[in-house]
Write a structure and sequence with these properties.
Layout: H1 3-17, H2 22-38, H3 50-63, H4 68-87, H5 114-125, H6 130-145, H7 149-154, E1 160-161, E2 166-170, E3 176-180, H8 183-200, H9 222-236, H10 244-257, H11 262-269, H12 274-277, H13 285-295
Antiparallel strand pairs: 1-2, 2-3
Helix pairs in contact: 1-2, 2-4, 5-6, 6-8, 6-10, 10-11
Length: about 300
């Protein structure tokens, strides 16, 4: 293993220890290895100069077609890597300046409407197939609670609290939160838990809430969740994006449109910053104007 690979592996081990999900760690590795290839004329990553970094970032802007947000994330990874090397005493100065993200008009792909989700749920409710019943519980919970894909696959049976109507969610960086579950969603989830899930467990036992019906009842994978949403989009003939991420956007937007406080929505989403949640307020400008007109003395 080369010196570059050694340092990258050690850095990623520290990143993983902070609770960052495996998908993100893999993305970090790809970005760092791509940077190492781009500056290989310098020999080691330890010999990189600020000019090398500027040239790489300029080439990324001109040739990659990445959005400003993606370029920021990739620059952030480089900065964090070299800051870690400084902290470890490997180098004296960080050659990567701290990146800044200019304010841009961030857009969100069209998410499914409540009506589209309801019609899909009705279609699944009429099916007697086990995989449809599992998919129904999964999509219902994703929409009701605004869960990320990685949060869905991490759920365990003991995370469900029918009495309090809540679920315990393990989010980014190992943070846990309690999210309320609606009555109808909890009823559907318990039906899956007690009537459907046991029929999928063919090889031993697992604590996983959602299990694969084609893989002997093991914990569902992120690829499986992606396939489920693609199949459901075709099945429901939904023109908008249908992914766990799109349902998460729908969850936030529909709550805000119906008057939920941004702080409460932020807590349920597990956002570390209120600014992240405020992105969704840009989707309901007419609602905010109407509220201002109705409730402000000079509206």
């Amino acid at each position: 293993m080369s010196v570059n690979a050694d340092y990258i592996t050690a850095f990623l081990a520290c990143v993983a220890a902070r609770g960052i999900c495996a998908d993100t760690v893999r993305t970090y590795r790809t970005d760092l290895e791509r940077f190492a290839m781009a500056v290989k004329q310098s020999g080691s990553l330890l010999c990189v100069t600020p000019q090398d970094v500027q040239n790489y970032r300029r080439e990324m802007r001109e040739r990659s077609g990445y959005t400003a947000a993606t370029l920021y994330q990739k620059a952030h990874v480089l900065h964090e890597f070299y800051q870690w090397l400084v902290g470890e005493g490997v180098i004296l100065l960080n050659p990567v300046s701290r990146p800044t993200l200019r304010k841009v008009n961030r857009s969100i792909r069209r998410h499914p409407s409540p009506g589209a989700v309801w019609r899909l749920m009705q279609t699944l409710a009429e099916s007697h197939h086990r995989h449809d019943q599992r998919s129904s519980a999964l999509i219902d919970l994703a929409y009701c609670c605004g869960l990320r894909r990685c949060e869905l696959l991490r759920l365990n049976v003991q995370d469900v609290n029918p009495t309090e109507r809540t679920i315990r969610v393990r989010g980014k960086f190992g943070k846990e939160r309690l999210v309320p579950v609606g009555k109808k969603t909890m009823r559907a989830l318990l039906h899956y838990l007690y009537q459907v899930r046991p029929t999928l467990l063919r090889h031993g036992t697992t604590n996983a809430l959602f299990v694969s019906w084609t893989d002997g009842g093991r914990r569902i994978s992120k690829e499986c969740i992606t396939r489920i949403f693609l199949r459901l989009r075709r099945k429901g003939k939904i023109s908008q994006s249908l992914t766990s991420h799109a349902l998460r956007h729908a969850f936030a937007t529909h709550l805000l449109k119906n008057g939920a406080p941004v702080q409460d929505v932020s807590e349920m989403l597990g956002h570390a910053s209120l600014q992240t949640t405020q992105l969704y307020t840009h989707l309901v400008p007419m609602d905010l104007k109407e509220h201002h007109r109705r409730f402000h003395p000079r509206g």
